[in-house]
Design brief:
The chain is of the alpha/beta class and 656 residues long. Helix content is 59%, strand content 8%. It has 24 helices and 10 strands. It has helices at 3-6, 21-34, 41-53, 113-123, 127-134, 139-170, 176-180, 195-210, 231-236, 263-268, 270-278, 303-335, 350-379, 381-396, 400-404, 414-435, 446-484, 487-500, 508-522, 526-552, 559-573, 581-586, 588-608, 629-650, and strands at 12-13, 63-64, 67-70, 77-87, 97-106, 184-189, 215-221, 224-226, 239-244, 258-261. The strands form 2 sheets. Strands 1, 2, 3, 4 and 5 form a 5-stranded mixed beta sheet that branches.
């Protein structure tokens, strides 16, 4: 489908009078509505804003392509505006954007529109073409320019691809490399698989052509892989560039020089990447038995970042089990009758017993999932089973003594034991991959099917049976310490963990506090639930405090700041502390201390009021199952107001 088939006259506005990002989005959404592409502007905008919260759609060079696959879309379409004065949309190059295309894609059905989108992203890489669009005097000239550029680019390219295919078929093996023509290959992919994917591919292909090194780029987009690299091309090439922000299929590149970078580097540093392949600076990639890369994990990635990445992979997969299980367990206590049997609270009535049983089922998977996905992050699929079993052993607290003597009761190694099991399992499988590299290729199939699962399972079982007493002791010590918390001690702990949530809002300090909260939650004790409550309220404060301050101290904030305040407050109520990042980045000296103090106050009050939370996420949506919910709201309000007052006092009035 061609671009002009999706971009109608009614959906184009030249020289639009907009000055903020929100105005830009509303203008484009109104054009979609006018063209009959969407049925509900509010629902469609929610999808657009959700995509924007995941990362900027402003690429660079003045280009911005907001997009959403959305249930409000009646038919695929594109809306476009030009804004000569530019709008700050957090572009990758830090410059304002002046050329906007908004993609409306149906939630269900064909992805044929993505072909037009890939073409749009590609042709916009031409600076002269962008200037022609910005200089268009009327809509017809604008659309004619797109039509001519698309015909020029893809008419010739389609013919060239057909000629390449015919030549490749006729070529003999000894001259295969020359006839294939591609010295360098690339794979591009972004999380949404839309604009960035295609722009990186175009940038790399154009730079390869410019440097005299023909380059072919495979795009892993929303509609699947396009321009897929063939086995013959991979064997013949000098090297491969992976410019991706998500996993791509890597086994096919075993033994080839490979560079792995983010998709944004593919867009902005194509010459550097191509020259690294030309100069032989790319490390050789080794793929072991369907597992992970057993060479360097990625360029320039330190051990600390690797550890953090593996940990977060486990935590992110664990959270749905904790959230679902925690809320159902909380509902069990909410609907139960304590007076029937205090010792069986949560299971006294049929409804409560249902929720408690289902919630406990999810909680039972929590630690094995954590461990399994840490191991999988390290060693790919071969690590999953080994890590899962390691987490199960840690969760049960099984030891050699308890395994051979039923009278000895195991004590769970808990969250720390499962963490240890995940990392040990992952690196154990990597060790097995290394140790079996030299076996005959005819036996390669038995590595993932026999060696890794059997020896891996045996190894992790021996290690965890031996080490579990230590983690059981640590877990018991932690549980006793948490249960003994009271008065000033608990208030100080709440102050610390809640304050940490605001230091970097989604960064290492924030994640460390959050992981501590989920670890405490795993103890299923009242003190653990209190810690989780303090952690969540601390993360909710920053966006809310900033929103309050923007209204209470209007002269300290810009008009745009105040316009976005309601959205910021909503995100804070939903426990999305990252909503405060743009403000913190623009004024860290004043914003961060104010938010840290406000969060710390809220966490301390939550602890003082003995508020409890059995779910690690949800914001206001889980308030009905918060213990002492009224005072929890008080803690949130007081902390947010304190943060807002401090921010208002510290900031200077903005220049008019």
């Amino acid at each position: 489908m061609r671009i002009v088939d999706l971009l109608k006259n009614d959906a184009v506005k030249l020289n639009a009078n907009v000055s903020t990002k929100d105005e830009m989005l509303d203008t484009l959404i109104n054009l979609h509505s006018k063209a009959g592409n969407i049925s509900d502007k509010k629902v469609f905008k929610e999808g657009i804003l959700k995509r924007e919260s995941e990362g900027p759609t402003a690429i660079a060079d003045g280009i911005c392509i907001p997009h959403s696959k959305n249930r409000a879309v009646k038919q695929p379409g594109i809306a476009a505006i030009t804004v000569p004065g530019g709008v700050d949309c957090d572009a990758l190059d830090g410059q304002p954007s002046n050329l906007f295309f908004m993609i409306a894609a149906p939630e269900e059905g064909s992805d044929v529109h993505l072909e037009a989108l890939s073409r749009l992203s590609t042709i916009l890489m031409d600076g002269k073409f962008r200037e022609r669009l910005l200089g268009a005097k009327d809509v017809k000239t604008f659309l004619d320019a797109i039509n001519e550029k698309e015909t020029e680019k893809y008419g010739a390219e389609d013919a060239a691809q057909s000629a390449d295919a015919a030549q490749n078929t006729a070529s003999a093996a000894p001259t295969e490399k020359k006839s294939l023509g591609y010295r360098i290959l690339a794979v591009t992919a972004c999380p949404t698989g839309i604009a960035h994917t295609y722009m990186a591919a175009e940038a790399l292909e154009e730079k390869g052509k410019e440097l005299g090194y023909p380059l072919k780029a495979e795009t892993n987009g929303s509609a699947g892989a396009k321009n897929v690299l063939t086995k013959a091309e991979i064997e013949a090439c000098d090297g491969i560039i992976i410019a991706a922000d998500k996993n791509v299929e890597m086994a096919r590149f075993d033994g080839k020089p490979v560079i792995k970078v983010s998709v944004s580097e593919g867009i902005h540093k194509p010459q550097e990447l191509v020259e690294r392949i030309i100069n032989g600076e790319a490390p050789v990639y080794h793929h072991a038995g369907g597992g992970a890369d057993v060479s360097a994990e990625s360029d320039g990635e330190g051990l600390g970042h690797q550890f953090y990445k593996h940990l977060m992979n486990g935590v992110s997969h664990m959270l749905p089990f904790v959230i679902g299980g925690g809320i159902l367990i909380a509902l069990a206590f909410l609907f139960d009758d304590y007076s029937i049997d205090p010792s069986n609270f949560g299971m006294n009535t049929p409804l409560a017993a249902f929720f408690k049983t289902a919630g406990n089922g999810a909680f039972g998977f929590m630690l094995p999932i954590l461990s399994g996905y840490i191991a999988m992050s390290i060693a790919d699929r071969p690590g999953l089973m080994v890590g899962f079993v390691g987490g199960y052993i840690a969760s049960n607290g099984t030891t050699f003594a308890s395994a051979f003597d039923a009278s000895i009761s195991p004590i769970s190694g808990g969250f720390l034991g499962a963490l240890f099991a995940g990392f040990v399992a992952g690196y154990l499988v990597l060790l097995l991959q290394k140790a079996t590299e030299k076996i005959p290729s005819s036996m390669d199939g038995i590595r993932p099917m026999l060696i890794y699962p059997v020896i891996g399972l045996f190894g992790i079982s021996v290690i965890m049976f031996a080490i579990d007493p230590f983690f059981s002791w640590i877990n018991q010590l932690l549980s006793n310490a948490l249960n003994s918390l009271g008065g000033a001690n608990s208030v100080v702990l709440g102050l610390i963990v809640a304050g940490m949530m605001s230091i970097d809002m989604g960064g290492p300090f924030n994640k460390a506090a959050y992981v501590f909260g989920t670890a405490a939650l795993a103890t299923q004790s009242e003190s653990g639930y209190m810690i989780m409550a303090a952690v969540m309220v601390g993360g909710m404060v920053p966006p809310i405090a900033i929103a309050i301050a923007s209204y209470a101290f209007k002269n300290k904030f810009t008009d745009n700041d105040r316009k976005t305040a309601p959205v910021n407050a909503i995100m804070g109520l939903c426990f999305i502390s990252e909503a405060a990042i743009p403000y913190a980045a623009g004024d860290p000296i004043h914003v961060i201390p104010s938010c840290v103090v406000g969060s710390a106050v809220a966490g301390a009050l939550s602890m003082a009021f003995k508020c409890t939370l059995m779910a690690p996420h949800g914001g206001i949506f889980v308030f009905p199952v918060v213990g002492n919910a009224v005072m929890y709201v008080v803690a949130l309000l007081v902390g947010s107001i304190v943060g807002a007052i401090l921010l208002g006092a510290l900031r200077k009035p903005v220049a008019k």
